[in-house]
Amino acid sequence: MRPPRPYCDSIRMSDADDDTAPRPTETHPAERMTTAPNGSDGAQPSPGQALRPWALSAGEVARAFDVDPARGLSRVEARRRARHGRNRLCRAATRPTWRILLDQFKSVVVILLAIASALSFVLGQLPEGFAVLAVILINGGIGFASEWRATRAMESLRQIGRPRTRVRRGGHDREVSAESLVPGDVVVLEAGDVAPADMRLIEANGLTVDESALTGESVTVAKRTDPVDGEAVLADRVSMLYKGTTVTEGSAEAIVVAIGMETELGRISQLTEAVVEELTPLERRLEHLGRRMAWLVLLAAAVIAAAGIWAGHPVRLIVATSIALGVAAVPEGLPIVANLALARGMWAMARRNALVNRLPAVEALGATDVIFTDKTGTLTENRMTVRTVVTSGGEAEIDSATRDAGTGTERHDDLLLRRALEVGVLCCNASLPDDPEEQESAQGDPTEIALLRAGAAVGLTREALLEDKPETREESFDPEVMMMATFHRTDGRFDVAVKGAPHAVLEACTTVATGPDEREPLVDADRQKWIERTEELAGRGLRVLALADRRVDSDTEEPYQDLRLLGLAGMIDPPRAGVRDLIRSCQQAGIRVVMVTGDQPRTARAIAQAVGIIDADDAAVIHGREVPRPDDLSDAEREGLLEARVFARFSPAQKLDLVDVFQAAEHVVAMTGDGINDAPALRKADIGVAMGRRGTDAAREASDMVLQDDAFASIVDAVSQGRVIFGNIRKSVMFMLCTNVAEVLAVAAASTIGTPLPLLPLQILYLNMLTDVFPALALGVGKGGPGVMDRPPRPPAQPIMTGRHWLALAGWGIAIAACVLAALAVGLLWFRWDQAVAVTCSFLTLGLAKLWFVYVLRERTSHWLHNTILKNRWIWAATGLCLLLLLAAVVLDPLAALLSTSPIGWKGWGCVVVLSVLPVVLGLALREARRRTRAAHS
């Protein structure tokens, strides 16, 4: 099945944005420029990407796009360049209602039923035709209602807005719709703005950007205007701003180099739309079973027709019986049972905050043996946290420092710790709301918010500190010097608070703090020890900031000289609570959890160890640059990928390739993610799982399931639910096929030996439509046993019915068919009943045998008195209802006349009960004998 075809709105722009129809002959400036000398990276770039603007100076890019950054494009030039279309992405067309309805009738089983219904109408068998048609409509109704509901719920998650941006045109800055931007526009950005297009920076003032949705990197990126290497990967192109990323701090001016589908975000969108969506494992299995049943139906109908005609039965009766038995051979209740089981799973998952987009996706997780999970926000909280602070007095965990501070204990290193955190709180631009519930939505640089939270943990708030030490000057973060400073008036002098990259701060420090107001010289040997400590913290996956201060007489002095080093703050995006236990549950269930992230390898390794994905420090972490395309992989490289547990710095295309590699090795793959960069792999995977709260629209639209609470626990619940669903469907299929095979065998044997048929056409349909469907539905909604997550996942190629199941089906089918024929023989030969009474006896024997057979379908390891079948109240309700329906078939005159049944008396009922129970008794006795034999040999 291919994904929905994308559509784009008209490229004509509104008059309000000063845009008119474009000139078709205009050539884009980027198309006239030669490719940068660094060569090509093998991707299919847009014009702006072809010239690699990140590798060129700002002046070269301005000349290439024929724009003066001080004035921007003229209105006339902007209108001329509007031929490149609106700055918007194509969106996947939503699945129309008629398509959802049509998809419910595409399975082989439903097509067979439709053919049988049509033949019944042609032959004048109206009751049979309407009965089969009712089954088709009921199945379609259940599937349509469930998927339509899910589709509408998914659409409600999509928020489509019309963002605006500030652009310089004709020498004036003005606000326009972001969709009206054209290549060469000069855009002005400030903190909080979302980049409206791909842009080359021409001016950056303390600029940091959150690129996590695009690259998967959890920390903000400091941007600058200097060119970078032409071969730099996306996450390292610090001279570029990309569409969809967010400015967290500072301000900037940039030239638009790509818009709409030409942007990196557009390329990911195209990659997503190009993915061919695969059938889920359940869909493949049902299709395989349906095709097999189609051949069996044709064979059974032909054999019975030939045998019946050869035995001298009326041709019309034989044809009608062949059609009825053809329908009987098909488990017509299967589509209803499968859809109801999946729908119930969907509704159960919705109550657990997991919104399923497609019915079969519920079961797909049950077959999953590999889960690819993103790091940021999926395994972690997507919130930077100060984990540790290192001062000259030692290393302190923030939690332990909080406890010490709460007891009033003031050790020497506690005072140093508080001074270091005080500097971190003062030297920032972020703010932290007083209400703990609102702190989750705090705005600003994630590292600064982390410092504010760490300060609050020891009783330091920015507002209280600024009352005592008002800020008089700020030296914004400069990517060139990698530091930031603020000046604060204190007792007639000024405290300088500094934070920044450790190597830069250490270079500017001449002393190190040994107490709140004490210091000693920082000699080269000590500086080297601090550098080694920085590397040790980084090796633990922490992002390290250095904190320093200085006391000066004027706030006009140079901030970055003669500093006193206070310490190092180690930060990390911490693992979510309980994730380690959940991953252990997956591993116990035979499911490999694999981390695939755009973050740095050291950070990825640290989180993977923290959550239990890997244990050893030397476990392989595969870097994206080390991995060739799938077609170029050697056998050893492919094996290495299949064995690895952590993949770092992986691009969207590489994530997609990785899913391909695992699927080619016959793994059933689930992929979780929340970013734009995850969308292609989410669509390609057997089941894509997107995050609902922090997930992007692109990720949600590409996924099969959305976790509205963003909890990894919901994935584990879905795996368990999927396994239960498949087990229920397997039981339902076994029940329906076994009893249907008994019908076919009984009628075929009677036709061959020339005896009266033990079942009439309408009697067959009555049993299949009622006494088959209700018990099968009850089996389909079972809750499953307690050990469902204690066993490994099913082999990917394992069908619904394995060889063991087919052998059991044949044995049970022969046993039940023999008892049905025995009931007919007893009535005709022993009691000398009329043929109608004898046929009624065999009809009721089959009906009751079906009901007793349900109780055989318990788990093989469960006790015969304590199992999920006996605990399922729906089984008991279905049994009671079917007993009433069988009784009604005999005692209600209109129904009895329709089915050609007759009263059978107490002797007949005694015969029916004994013969219907006999297969179950014999079968259970044989199973117990085998169990004891195996126990004796073991």
Structure explained in plain terms:
The chain is an alpha+beta fold and 938 residues long. Among the domains are: 44-88 and 182-258, Calcium-transporting ATPase, cytoplasmic transduction domain A (Distorted Sandwich), CATH 2.70.150.10; 99-149 and 278-360 and 717-937, Calcium-transporting ATPase, transmembrane domain (Up-down Bundle), CATH 1.20.1110.10; 388-477 and 487-552, Calcium-transporting ATPase, cytoplasmic domain N (3-Layer(aba) Sandwich), CATH 3.40.1110.10. The chain is 48% helix and 16% strand. It is built from 33 helices and 26 strands. Helix 24 (679-684) links the parallel strand 24 (669-673) and strand 25. Helix 6 (108-122) runs antiparallel to helix 7, helix 27 runs parallel beside helix 29 and helix 31 packs across helix 32 (893-899).
